[in-house]
Amino acid sequence: MFRRVKIAAASAGVVAVAGMLPILAASPASATQSACTNYVATHGYFAGPKVKAACSHGVIDMGVSKVPNPLCITGLASLNVASAVSVPACKRA
Question: Hey, is 39 helix, strand or coil?
Answer without folding.
Answer: helix
